[in-house]
Amino acid sequence: MSIPKEPRQLMINIMYLVLTALLALNVSAEIFNAFKIVDKGLVKSNKALDNQNAALPSQIKKSAERDSKLKVYAERTDSVSQISKDASKYFDELIVKLIDDTGDKDGVISDGDYVMKDGQRKDLKGKKNKDYATRILYDGGEGEEIKQMLYDLKDQFAALADPEDRDSLRNVLAIDIDEDTWKAKKKKNWSELMFKQMPVQAIIPIFRKFENDIKASETTMMSYLANKVGLVEDVKLDQFNVTASPKKSYIIKGEPYEAEIFLTAFAGETSKTGISVRVGNQNLPINSEGKAVYKATPNSLGEKKYTATISVTNPVTKETKTYSNDFSYEVGERSVAVSATKMNVFYMGVDNPLEVSAAGVASNDIRVTMGGGGAATIKKGPNGTYIVNATRPTSNNNPATVNVSAGDFSAKKEFRIKRIPDPVAKLSGKRGGNMNSGEFKAQDGVFAILENFDFDARCNISGYRVVRVARRKDPVVAVNAGGRYSGETKRVIAQATPGDRFYFEGIKCKCPGDAAPRDLGSMSFAIK
After folding, report:
1. Residue 448 in 3-state DSSP?
2. What are the structural domains of the chain?
3. Residue 13 and residue 3: Cα distance in Å, rounded?
4. Phi, psi (deg, nearest 5) at residue 192
5. Across-strand partners of 416?
6. pLDDT tens digits, 435-471
7. Can you give the pTM of this predicted structure?
8. Nearest CA-CA partner of 427 in 444, 415, 414, 452
9. DSSP state of 483
10. What angle do CA 94, 98, 102 make, to 5 degrees?
11. ∠ CA(321), CA(272), CA(274), 5° rounding?
12. Which of 111, 178, 276, 430 is most buried as measured by Cβ atoms within 10 A of its Cβ?
């Protein structure tokens, strides 16, 4: 491309070059920040793995004390820890050397940040340096040494397993050397893929990832040794509690009582621990879930008690321990109880929740209907409740009834049906009295309030008259439809001045279930 001779075109070309450079710098900054964030995440992950791995050796050694043959697995925990510790230290030192050799020699890496001796955090001077990784790790061959070291680590870990387990264990260790990708991308070797032209800020999380793989492999090895000493597979039962789980704690005379009796700390079907269950003189068989089923059919009413006894034999020491606990259940007659959730009144126009229960009878076997005076329907609601909807009130001598039938038994309960009580008309939460003109003019209209009413119901104002009486002026009347001000009413309200008196007359409203509007009376306000 030839250089333009015209100064204006030359300036435009230079601006394009500067803009392109700026965009490249912005993308670069975002990428380097991403590398830093990844490194911080790996640091936290490595600390979590260190904490997890630190607790396992002592547990494995303690579990191995029960059998001298298990001692060999407990001894291997120290070797696993040392291999991981030495390899992690190697990569920590590589990170420090990488930072030192690229311009920062007076600080340390802490939680992914570069921290100076005075405690200040800053970016690495050589974070964009690509020459070091290329020259040392790729050209210098150190990258291939790292790869070989990772292969060796995998073999060292696997060598601590039993010979028959080594191949399968080597396949699940987290240390991973990707031999396929660099060949697919036609790179010279693994080091070219991993390190060539890689900036320092990107190399650090790569090394940190290798540390993470090593620590995760340490966890895998510790879990393997834990399994061998029975820390995971053979649970050691040392805390017990006998538990009974009855299908019903209250049964009807003539019905069978059935309960599952089991240890809450039961080790499972594969455990070698011997367990036997007895209630009274009756030995109970144990199912595949470690539970025994106790059944009894009482022929009298009242509380019934029994004692469950469980014996546990330790598979290692052959010691047998016995545990007991007392349980009881109640035997009663069938009965039916009905109660209104709110009170013994149903209100017209709203959902009236009702609870119906019958002892000893499943909810699906209960039938509930409405009868008696008034007009009401009943339907099933959520969670086993019922909803009553009433449309006509009852008289004193003819109440509504809720009829319940459950099996061979039936019962009924009387309820009154009433309309929703009269609401109270209010303006700005007041029934009347003094109100300053600003507050008076700010209101949208008159509202009907149901005070001390437990149901979710709303009454709506149907209409009213507004009368303004000003000093030495004739009264002004406006008729309003609905609760909110409209038309002429808004104009009259806007004229309110101190000394005026406003009357709200013939206030009508309708509540749910009403056939005709109700009269809520009048309100009077003196404007201050």
Report:
1. strand
2. 28-228 (no CATH), 242-332 (2.60.40.10), 335-418 (2.60.40.1080), 424-527 (no CATH)
3. 9
4. -65, -40
5. 345
6. 999 999 999 999 999 998 888 899 999 999 999 999 8
7. 0.42
8. 444
9. S
10. 170
11. 35
12. 276
